[in-house]
Each structure stands twice: as C-alpha cells, then as structure tokens.
Design a protein that fits this description.
6-stranded parallel beta sheet, transmembrane helix, binds nicotinamide-adenine-dinucleotide, Rossmann fold, L-lactate/malate_DH, L-malate dehydrogenase (NAD+) activity, alpha/beta, oxidoreductase, 3-stranded antiparallel beta sheet, 14 strands
Length: about 375
C-alpha cells in the first residue's frame, strides 16, 4: 500500500468516526431535551372535544375512552364539553361525577351544559351523537324533520363558536344526511372537516372476515364500506387482504367462497345493528363509541402506510358518485387530512351496489331539504 492510499484510508476512518459521533451527540441531545421536558412537565395544550347527546348510550361509552387517551394518544390532555337536553341533564350530571371519580390524568376540564353555544365554544373536535331515533309509529319524514332542526341549530353554533379548524364527526342517524345538513348550515367550516361515521360498519366487516378465516382482526385490512350508513351500504372485500406468513393475500382467494362473500357477508354487516338490538334489547353503543374513537384517531394521527379506512366524506365525484353527497369512501389520512383512495377497480356487481346506496342518499337529501 502506498502512502497516498494509507492517507486516504486514515481520512476515511476519521470522517466515519466523526459522522458517527455527530449522530450520537444529536441523539443524546434529543433524549436530554425530552427528559428535561418531562421533568419540567411541559404539557401540551389541551384539545377541547365536544360530545353532544353525552348522557346517551354511546356518549356514556365514548367519554371515558376520550378521557383515557384513546382518541388523541396518551400524551394529549383533553377538555370535554358535553351537551344534553333538559331531560337528559340530570343524567349528564351523573356522567360528570363518574368522570371526576375516574381521575383520568389527561382530563383537564369538563363542561356540562344544555346551551349549544356554551357547548360549541372553542371546540377543536365535535362528535355529534345527539339525535332523535325513529320509534314505532313515527313517519320517516317526522324523524328527518326533528333531526334536521337539531343539526341546523348545532351547525350554526359550531360555525360561530368552534375553533376555526374544528373537525366534525356526525354519529347520529341518519348520519350521512345529518352531516350534510350540518355542512350546509356551517358554511365557514371547510367541507373537508365534516364527516360521518361508517367506521363501525368497516370494523364489523373486518370482524366478519377475521371470524370466517380464523385470523386475527389486526391482520385483515382494506375492506371498504361504500355509501350510506344504512342497510343499503355496500361492504366490499374486493381489495381487502390478510397478512399471512407468505405475505399479503387477497381475502377473496383465502375465503374462496364468492357466494358467502356476495350474500351472507354483506347482509350480516348491513344488518348487524339490528342483530345487536335483538340480542341486547339496546342498540350498539360500545362498538359505536370505539369506532368513533378509531375514526378521529386515524383522521388526526394518520392511517398506516398501505392501509385505508372508511369514512363518510363530502363526495367530489370520485367513483362516479354525485358531488354534494356525504358518502362513505375508502380514505387514507395524513397530517390531519383525509384523501379518497383513487383508482380502485369497480366490477359490475359493485357498480350496482355503489349506485343503489348513492340513490338512497339522494332521496334522503331531498327529504331533508323538504324539511328545512
Ligand atoms: N353512525 C353509526 O355508526 C351509529 C351507530 C350506532 C348508533 N348511531 C346513532 O347514534 C345516535 C345516538 O345513539 P345512542 O344509542 O347513544 O342514543 P341515545 O338515545 O341513548 O342517546 C342520544 C342522546 O342524545 C340526547 N339528545 C337528543 N337531542 C338532543 C339535542 N338537541 N341536544 C343535545 N342532546 C340531545 C338525548 O337526550 C340522548 O341522551 C342515534 O341516532 C343512533 O341511531 C349511529
């Protein structure tokens, strides 16, 4: 080895050592800063979350999940605003007592009220659970009319008093159309910030596939709920996969029973709500609350790479769905924004089902507007 090569090798080693040292020092510095922040308790600003209808079944299951950090993570403090009717207010006082008794470290404040303006003040995230369910003997138009008036009033309060970048999730039925009314009466809230819950149906579809294949539910991904949160929704597995020891495998291939997938699977997911009412004599609340947490969590924190979820969002015409409807699409989320997954192949059977549920939403929209 001549002198020149030896010099180069020494230089190379020195540069390498220096680089490693710089990275190590940087890492150490970052660790120290984080540790010091912990010691000084440099807390994040709390996020204010509104839950309407908070003394109801879903509200009661949802608020402890939020207070425990299931929505925004274990390091994010929250303030809860909870809205109820006069009739529900006594029960809401009880919910507040229980929240205090649970001593949630992340819960920095609880406001209970029957005043929609106070409820909406400075909220960053609004979960709209309040609604009038259809009871025996009630006309469809009657139910729609009562929900339209709730969503009109609450939209105006959010418009005027919520934080400018407030994200809204509508849970109460008819969820898609309630969200649409809210959008109409809160025009300054960007349409990208108004969504409705179809994640429960999405999770139900994951659950059914996991049961059928006897695989863990976390290994199943990319099912889709298209359309309305109603019995016309279309649970679609054509792009869904399961993680196996041999990589991702298509759900259709693994199930290898198209008849089951095109019939029983779809109706089971569509009618799961009814099956739960029959068994529990009450509608699904635990799974609805959990799905609401999943929806907001993924929207704010982001979806894992290669994974999508279903969200009811304002249609931009993707997949031939009429713009101006709140329709459930497959979406990915990044930096607090959702985007509709583009370019998925839609076969003939799916096309029919996508259009059928869109048609129902068009009719619901017309009915809602006739109630304004
Ligand atoms: N999108 C979904 O996946 C999904 C799933 C399950 C249930 N839901 C719907 O969620 C809604 C709530 O379900 P639940 O089981 O909790 O019902 P619930 O009747 O137990 O609770 C609703 C609560 O809303 C309150 N409320 C009614 N009008 C109000 C108003 N104007 N302001 C404030 N509060 C008001 C009621 O007092 C009640 O406590 C229903 O519409 C239900 O159909 C949607």
């Amino acid at each position: 080895m001549n002198m020149e090569m030896l010099a180069l090798e020494i230089l190379d080693n020195t540069v390498l050592k220096k680089t490693v040292l710089v990275f190590f020092c940087g890492f150490l510095f970052w660790k120290i800063v984080r540790y010091m922040c912990g010691l000084l308790k440099v807390d994040k600003e709390p996020v204010t979350i509104l839950v309407t209808g908070a003394a109801g079944q879903i509200g009661y299951a949802l608020v402890p999940m939020i207070a425990r950090g299931m929505v925004l993570g274990p390091n994010q403090p929250v303030i809860l605003h909870m809205l109820e009717t006069e009739a529900g207010f006594e029960a809401l006082k009880g919910v507040k007592m229980e929240l205090i008794d649970a001593a949630f470290p992340l819960l920095k404040g609880v406001v209970i009220t029957t005043d929609v303006v106070e409820a909406c003040k400075d909220v960053n995230i609004a979960v709209m659970v309040a609604g009038i369910p259809r009871k025996e003997g009630m006309e469809r138009k009657d139910v729609m009319s009562r929900n339209v008036s709730i969503y009109k009033a609450q939209a105006s309060a959010l418009e005027e008093h919520a934080a400018a970048d407030c994200k809204v999730l509508v849970v109460a039925n008819p969820a898609n159309t309630n969200a649409l009314i809210l959008k109409e009466f809160a025009p300054s809230i960007p349409e990208k910030n108004i969504t409705c819950l179809t994640r429960l149906d999405h999770n139900r579809a994951l659950g059914q596939i996991s049961e059928k294949l006897n695989v863990h539910v976390s290994d199943v991904k990319n099912v889709i709920i298209w359309g309305n949160h109603s019995s016309t929704q279309y649970p679609d597995v054509n792009h869904a996969t399961v993680a196996t020891s041999n990589g991702q495998k298509n759900v259709r291939e693994l199930v290898s029973d198209d008849y089951w997938l095109n019939n029983e699977f779809i109706t089971t997911v569509q009618q799961r709500g009814g099956a739960i009412i029959k068994a529990r004599k009450l509608s699904s609340a635990l799974s609805a609350a959990s799905a609401a947490c999943d929806h907001i969590h993924d929207w704010v924190v982001g979806t894992p790479k290669g994974t999508w979820v279903s969200m009811g969002v304002y249609s931009d015409g993707s997949y031939g769905i009429q713009p101006g409807l709140i329709y459930s699409f497959p979406v990915t989320c990044d930096k607090g924004e959702w985007s509709i997954v583009q370019g998925l192949k839609i076969d003939e059977l799916s096309r029919e089902k996508l259009d059928k549920t869109a048609q129902e939403l068009i009719e619901e929209k017309a009915l809602a507007y006739s109630c304004l």
